[in-house]
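Folding follows sequence. Below is one example:
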Amino acid sequence: MRLVRNLTGLLGFLLIWEAVVRAGLIDQNDLPPPTVVFARIGELLGDVEFVRDVIASVLAWLIALLISIAIAVPAGLLLGSIRWLRDATKAIVEFLRPIPSVALIPLVLIVVGGGPEAKITLAVYAAVWPILFNTIYALAEIDPLLLETARTYGTPRARVLTSVALPHAAPFVFTGIRLSAAISLILVISTEFLAGAKLGIGQFVLEASSGPGRMDLVLAGTVVAGVLGYLVNEGLERLGHRLFRWSSAVEGAAA
């Protein structure tokens, strides 16, 4: 039912867009109608070079997300369970977190160069925070009695984290991962566009926007990026419902 409502809203938007352009209220060179844009997408999906651009962006996104998880989950478990460590790092975390990732593009280009490493680095930087803070928040919500019971039986701290804390935090961590998945995709494509890249959807849009009268290609690349983002979010949301039906954390994030 939700899918039907979403598709109905999207169809209505596309019909309005088509009607406005066909009526001459907007120049087709400035804003091509959706029929033209989707026809161009069909052509691009048969273009090997464009498919390579899509694959390059998706691979960079996946690598960045996996690195973010590998960094943020252990760090969140440590900061969430060791109070003095959380207090000692609070200032630096609160200093780094508000810095926009795109503002770091010049620094990253100098340090790691302009290859795929640049967009992956910036995507990791942006994607770490939702996972980290969701993990810390989840540990703060654990019933202290569970932890005390585990310690009473002589369970080592590392075992408490993996067998008690992590299962409780898993729904919150997954919600952070879902948020970070969208953020990292945005940063990958934005970096490709702003910093330039040999391959990627952002690089394709940049090249298309530099040519006269190619707004149809610009919008086609943008729509493909939007579809990827929707599929990633929808897929992770459905996976979250399957894995954590019992948790209100996933339900709240979906709402």
